[in-house]
Design goal:
The complex is a heterodimer of chains A (54) and B (183). Chain A has 54 residues and is mainly α. The radius of gyration of chain A is 24 Å and the shape is rod-shaped. Chain A starts with 8 loop residues before the first helix and ends with a helix. Chain B has a domain of 115 residues. In chain B, 75% of the residues lie in helices and 0% in strands. Chain B is extended. The chains are: A mainly alpha (54), B mainly alpha (183). Chains A and B meet through helix 1 of A and helix 2 and helix 8 of B.
């Protein structure tokens, strides 16, 4: 026992891979939802003058 | 845990002071907290397999963490079923305060119960030796590579590796380095 672990690199790659997939997916979902919300605000802003006219 | 503590603060702030900004921050914090907690569970399972031999065990730390993830997931689901924004904000704030009770239990579970999981990660258990050992391992790889590159540049051929390798750092060496004792 010398306190140094050997091998097990597949678990290291798996941990980094899972982290990368989760973080990138969450970042992408935030970006998509942000764009959708901007579009919704834009549509509502355009619709507002029409509502005022009626 | 920090994100969920922030969510707890937002829930308290909304109930005591009001303001939609706290409700918005609360929702964002719950969502980020769930993503990070789920990632924590996944990474824990990946760590558990080579060290314990199993992906999952009903150990106090793991069980309380799973309860925490599902509790906050439930709050996020609850929000989808309430149409009235005021009711949604109040209910989810109260639910977050109740669910947050589990967060300190997760943290202290390894101290309170006899568990398979290692003890609390504190500055005393992670500082000193561990970063030093990591830096040592990096240098073990980097020094021969630099030397090989220089030798290859000078002679046009790579030199035999391993001549400048420092000796492996043993567990007692890490402890000695951590305590500032010469080996």
């Amino acid at each position: 026992m010398d306190g140094i672990l050997t091998g097990g690199w597949e678990f290291v790659w798996l941990a980094y891979g899972v982290s990368l997939v989760v973080i990138v997916s969450y970042a992408a979902s935030i970006f998509v939802r942000y764009r959708a919300e901007l579009g919704r605000c834009d549509r509502e802003a355009r619709r507002e003058p029409e509502v005022r006219k009626t | 845990m920090l994100v969920l503590t922030f969510a707890f603060g937002c829930a308290l702030a909304y109930l005591l002071r009001g303001g939609w900004e706290w409700e918005t921050r609360l929702e964002a914090a719950i969502e980020a907290g769930i993503v990070l907690s789920a990632l924590l569970c996944a990474q824990g399972a990946i760590w558990a397999k080579p060290t314990w031999g199993v992906w999952w065990d009903w150990d106090p730390r793991l069980t309380t963490t799973a309860v925490m993830v599902f509790a906050f997931l439930g709050i996020l689901a609850l929000r989808q079923f309430v149409d009235d924004p005021v009711k949604r904000a109040v209910w989810s704030s109260v639910a977050v305060i109740i669910a947050y009770v589990d967060v300190p239990i997760v943290y202290f579970s390894v101290k309170w119960w006899n568990t398979l999981h290692q003890g609390l990660s504190t500055p005393e258990t992670v500082s000193g030796g561990v970063p030093l050992a990591a830096a040592h391992q990096c240098l073990r790889g980097a020094v021969p590579r630099l030397r090989d590159d220089r030798a290859a540049d000078a002679a046009g051929a790579p030199a035999p590796p391993g001549e400048l390798l420092p000796p492996p750092l043993s567990a007692s060496g890490i402890k000695a380095a951590h305590l500032g004792v010469a080996r």
